[in-house]
């Protein structure tokens, strides 16, 4: 598992969007600091996510926001 540190706001957006993707969001929060949470991705998902993020030259938080906006537009 690869771990990303994301803002709590972004983590809340993921929890809100999760039902549209099929998974059930966990009620557990892995808080690592004030306003920061840990997000864990499986190895292959992490590779794909990192490739998208690096191609766009943005942070994990920004990339997640773009993915969620894309889901809302669909």
Provide the domain count.
1
The number of distinct helices, counting runs of at least 4 residues, comes to: 3
Regions with little confidence, pLDDT below 50 for 5+ residues? none
Helix content: 55-70%
Strand order of the largest sheet: 1-3-2
Main beta sheet: 3 strands, antiparallel
Order of helices and strands: EHEEHH
Rg, Å, rounded = 12 Å
State the distance separating the first and last CA atoms. Answer: 29 Å
Q: Strand-residue fraction?
A: 15-25%
Note the overall shape.
globular
Number of strands: 3
Keywords:
single chain, 74 residues, alpha+beta, 3-stranded antiparallel beta sheet
Structure description:
The protein has 74 residues and is an alpha+beta fold. It has one domain. Helix content is 57%, strand content 20%. It has three helices and three strands, in the order βαββαα. The chain has helices at residues 8-21, 43-56, 60-73, and strands at 2-7, 31-33, 36-41. It has a three-stranded antiparallel β-sheet with strand order 1-3-2. Strand 2 and strand 3 (36-41) form a beta hairpin. The model has no long low-confidence stretch (mean pLDDT 88).
Furnish the topology, listing elements before pairings.
Elements lengths: L1 E6 H14 L9 E3 L2 E6 L1 H14 L3 H14 L1
Antiparallel strand pairs: 1-3, 2-3
């Amino acid at each position: 598992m690869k771990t990303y540190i994301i803002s709590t706001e972004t983590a809340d957006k993921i929890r809100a969007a999760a039902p549209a993707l099929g998974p059930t969001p966990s009620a557990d929060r892995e808080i690592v600091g004030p306003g920061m949470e840990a997000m864990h991705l499986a190895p292959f998902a992490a590779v794909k996510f990192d490739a998208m993020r690096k191609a766009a030259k943005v942070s994990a938080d920004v990339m997640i926001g773009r993915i969620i906006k894309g889901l809302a537009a669909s």
